[in-house]
């Protein structure tokens, strides 16, 4: 499969598994799962055809491992704007996690901390490199350091998704370190 086709399928999956399943007539269960055949059939009915083999390739080769296929079902690993319970257990985070953003957002973050915005949770990266890539999607990346160990000790709950993205409800400003 050519890279452009893979990106098109991945973006289609993100839109319908994370944000608008009803647009193509699928219903996600409480944890965000939908049977693979149901997804493929619904996409075809709405003019976007892909095969099971293409789907398997996109899921396996996705650089961010955004999707999981298990027991004949598929779901997005995180990033939902619709109500789902990913059923992830609380996890003890490493001492520091990272968040990639852009300069125009820094003033608000200094004041309000990190909020989930339209998503269910704040997404944090386990390393600077990943956070840099995330921030660079919207411009020149600014990488913030999150004192996750101190947050955890203060009672904040963390979860880690299947693809290693750390999730938490919010990050208050006092737990953030900004680059000079």
From TrEMBL:
EC number(s) from the headed UniProt entry: 2.7.1.-
Domain of life assignment: Bacteria
Gene3D superfamilies per UniProt: 3.20.170.30, RNA 2'-phosphotransferase, Tpt1/KptA family, N-terminal domain
Keywords, alphabetical: NAD, Transferase
GO process annotations (BP): tRNA splicing, via endonucleolytic cleavage and ligation
Single annotated GO MF: tRNA 2'-phosphotransferase activity
Function: Removes the 2'-phosphate from RNA via an intermediate in which the phosphate is ADP-ribosylated by NAD followed by a presumed transesterification to release the RNA and generate ADP-ribose 1''-2''-cyclic phosphate (APPR>P). May function as an ADP-ribosylase.
Family affiliation: Belongs to the KptA/TPT1 family.
Protein name from the UniProt record: Probable RNA 2'-phosphotransferase
Species this chain originates from: Streptomyces gilvosporeus
Gene name tied to this protein: kptA
């Amino acid at each position: 499969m050519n890279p452009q086709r893979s990106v098109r399928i991945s973006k289609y999956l993100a839109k319908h598994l994370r944000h608008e399943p009803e647009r193509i007539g699928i219903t996600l269960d409480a944890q965000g799962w939908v049977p693979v055949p149901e997804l493929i059939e619904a996409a075809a009915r709405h003019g976007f055809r892909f095969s099971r083999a293409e789907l398997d390739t996109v899921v396996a080769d996705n650089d961010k491992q955004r999707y999981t296929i298990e027991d004949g079902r598929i779901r997005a690993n995180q990033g939902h704007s619709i109500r789902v319970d990913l059923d992830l257990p609380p996890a003890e985070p490493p001492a520091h996690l990272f968040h990639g953003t852009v300069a125009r957002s820094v003033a608000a973050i200094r004041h309000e901390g990190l909020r989930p915005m339209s998503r269910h949770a704040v997404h944090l990266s386990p390393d600077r490199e990943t956070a840099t890539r995330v921030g660079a999607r919207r411009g020149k990346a600014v990488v913030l350091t999150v004192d996750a160990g101190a947050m955890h000790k203060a009672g904040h709950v963390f979860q880690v998704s299947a693809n290693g993205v750390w999730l938490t409800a919010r990050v208050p400003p006092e737990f953030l370190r900004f680059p000079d």
